[in-house]
Specification:
globular, alpha/beta, 14 strands, disordered N terminus, six-stranded mixed β-sheet
Amino acid sequence: MSVSDVVAQKIVIDVLALDTYLIEGEDGLMAVDVGSHGCAMDIANYLTTALNRPISDIRYITATHFHIDHIGGIGHLLDMCPSSTRVVFYSAVDDYISGRRKIPLIKNWFVGFPSATLVSTRYLRKTSHLCIGTLAGIPLPGLRNITRLPFEKNRIDYFGHKSGSKTCCLNNFGFGEWEVIKTPGHTEDSICFFNDSTGELLTGDLIVNTSSDGRGDLNRFCWDRNRIRESYEYLCKRINPVLMYPGHGEMITGGADTLLKVRVF
């Protein structure tokens, strides 16, 4: 089974139209953005029925950023996996968990949140998609101090970036065809996953695709509007994806100009 065979199939549409993906490495799978208990159960069901693979094939569970709708089901999925399965975050998340840094507040709530809520009503199918295992990752005053996760810290690894580097390869994790690209803006710790050989980009919440024309939009619902534009411009200069998988909404296709067609505010 090729990497594209796995990634190109959306695993589950979660609350707020969150999309969860599986990517394949040398020795197993990595689950990206597990937002709820229902999401975790759907991943397990997809593995055993559609892919005819055991849950033990999941080696890592990760998130494109530390928001509750992207990490709320990690603990539940981890409970179903063997003890060797690891959670892996971008290195900046360690500062949140340790209390050295607070989760950045999201601005422009009135621009981004209502549209996301309206879209979510089309996708919510099971009450389990509303069930979460943690209150960590809420970007609101007071609540952003909650960073406790429903699993031990010794289950967590981190994607490392050298000082000033925006990218790191996942060779050490057994996913050598993939690289992690630092794309702050929606949050301070936001990352994307890119496979140059297949042209696939997992955008997280940098880009969303909830409009009817399918072009995708740079996310107005963000921590820093200037930083998110800079991250988008960096991607446009550096990579040329042909398929993009957003954190919310449908897959974005458009050939060589896929990224350039995204609407920017």
